Amino acid sequence: MSETSGTPVRRGRTRGVTGRGPLRRALLAVTATLAVTAVAAAAATLPANASAPTPPSGWSQVFVDDFNGASGSGVNTSNWQYTTGTSYPGGPGGFGTGEVETMTSSTDNVSLDGSGNLRITPRRDASGHWTSGRIETRRTDFQPPAGGKLRVEARLQMPNVTGAAAKGYWPAFWMLGAPFRGNYWNWPGIGELDIMENVQGLNTEWATMHCGTSPGGPCNETSGIGGSKACAGATCQAGFHTYAVEWDTSTSVEEMRFYLDGVNFHTVRENQVDATTWANATNHGYFIILNVAMGGGFPDAFGGGPDSGTEPGHPLVVDYVQVLQSGGGGDDGGGTTPPPTGNRDAYSAIQAESYDGQGGVIAETTSDSGGGQNLGSLANGDWALYKGVNFGSTAAHQFVGRVASGAGSGISGLVEVRLDSRTSTPVGSFAVGNTGGWQSWRSIPANISAVTGTHDVYLTFTSGQPSDFVNVNWFDFGH
Hints:
mainly beta, 479 residues, 3 helices, seven-stranded antiparallel beta sheet, eight-stranded antiparallel beta sheet
């Protein structure tokens, strides 16, 4: 959906570009002539309230939500967080795409239906103002194990509305690179994978990878590298279909393969762009997004809207979302990682919420200078991973963390820095207790052992008691 994306016609959410003029509308006409396979037929005929299928041999499930719960209840906030308003904090207005709705956490817009489905429903009030819903996984560490594969899949039904009544509808199931969270201006370099986008109730699904620079660049932004396919059997609006991307690092040339009902209709390969562009888009985890926008660059390319003839109240219905992985040695946070690529500067602030892997942490809105998010609810045993931190040839001797704490009397702990493994000996640490509140920020320095070269950095949190003891906004290193 690119926050900054242009669509293929861009599907784009255009995540971080603002004020650069209208989105480019490079319309992709990708014919959908692939035959529907037996896998596709099976996927299309599952009952509406099907559970996520059992992973095939060789695959393991690392995330799933079947959206089971009472009718009218909200989503599981252990898995998802709501994005509300008309932009990210400090980010481009209209989420950078020109969409016109206000996102809310109201169950009028985002709720379970009691039959195992999530419904994201656009509404229009008496004054003509649109509201809708947008949810994102709390986790931002979805990426394949080294030398393995990642599959992100959802079974869903697009809003069942077509023609003039569908004008302005823009549902999407997509992913953004973890470094976007808390920055909101680094799109498209950090990568975007649009697994399913649709506009205007057309019987077409678009899939796109965004990367590089915008406008133009190696990934043809703001359109991205995209393809499209029609839903077979029931239309995309009239029935459930399965949409997926497989990120494959097991081949000599990495691939992003996009699927509709088991049919691979679009593939983006590593050698289609330069090595730096690919690395910047893939050297970190991703988070998942489900939303229905109203209006914006992509609908504009197909007639615009919404307008007075657009019908509110037609939901994107999601049966399940699951993430699978296969093969590779992987890094579970307890062992060594693949050689880091060196795309983080040790001497510039590293936003804590831009982690590439984590255990036990959450991201939340911060009131610290600059806005964005911080890591919160940090307690004994929690950790966060930041891949490819480049210290250069002159040794770093200092670590500075921007922290806050509202911990009770006698509750404190250590913020530790470890290199290349979560279980390695810390190169340095500092102790922190109550700073005056969970949003009362201070920068605390600590001496560390001399560090040069490029390393994966782990922040680990150690305490002699189980209570939360610190929040972290950012950190950096010094000589």
